[in-house]
Amino acid sequence: MSVFRGLRLKSKPAHEILPERHSFVKVLDKSQIGGQVQLSISPIIATFSATLMFCVATCAVAQTPRNTTKVKPAAARAKPTGVADFNKDGMPNLQSHAFMVFDPITGRALFSKNADQAVPIASITKLMTAMVVLEAKLDMDEALIVDKDDIDMLKGSRSRIPVGAAFRREDLMRLALMASDNRAAAALGRTYPGGTVAFVEAMNAKAHLLGLQNAKFVDPTGLAPGNVASPQDLALLVSAASTFPEIREFSTAQELHVTLATGGRSMGFNNTNALVRSQGWNIGLSKTGFINEAGKCLVMHATIANNPVVIVLLDSWGKLTRIGDANRIKKWLETQKVAEFAAKKG
Q: Residue 260: its pLDDT value, please?
């Protein structure tokens, strides 16, 4: 069963999207499937600020693989003060536990730490979720009913997507990638042919095809700490995901407004990566992640100093560290690496 397609966000870098342009989704409830889902644009509706938050888990249900590095919860690590942009060697002074700055053209790492260590990756998992859905050629206009089985019983994370509402598969992917909504990602996996079990099998099969040597997936949301990968794995994953126009568009959209069928209540969702709203960044793909076992995570495919680069930041200690690390990498590439980039491509 399908619903009508409406206006879409344009596939362009987030910094080029006018701030007054918002995407709207009208949601059908269970009794209204077969009606229309309409998207509209309105410049006079104020921006809603509603970032999804994940609840800290009390225990890890999924067992961490042997090659996974166990780290302290992000909140337990000491907060450094007065972080300089560069260290004494002129390299970015990054505070994330594991990272990689990757050149997708040459396939070489420009700068990395703990590059081969598998660690929990939280909602970065949703990039693989989106690729599996898109490669299955499923009907993106099909109306999917959000089910009670999509509720997070592992971490107790919140979602404002109501059980019983129907969304187009495409709009669930928008919410999963832009707002990192776990209920949306769970519904995408559950409605895959063969259900969630078959979906996870497809995720791991795709990881094998991409050569992700340390990656393992156990659910489509990233809530389970058993979803692990190394920075090297994620550099390859981001490079592959960036070839999908839908993933690029949905993951860098600044905001999405959802109008519920019951009562016509409108809810606003912001992108979980504040950098997509920055005029100084040209971001082609973005995904954030957080669970207690993973800390704050961020991956991006961006253009810096006129060159494409993949940034992977895992297990950052605090709310703003991954943003600070990303900005330090950007400054380093703009001031220290421009000549080297030019020489490699010359």
A: 79
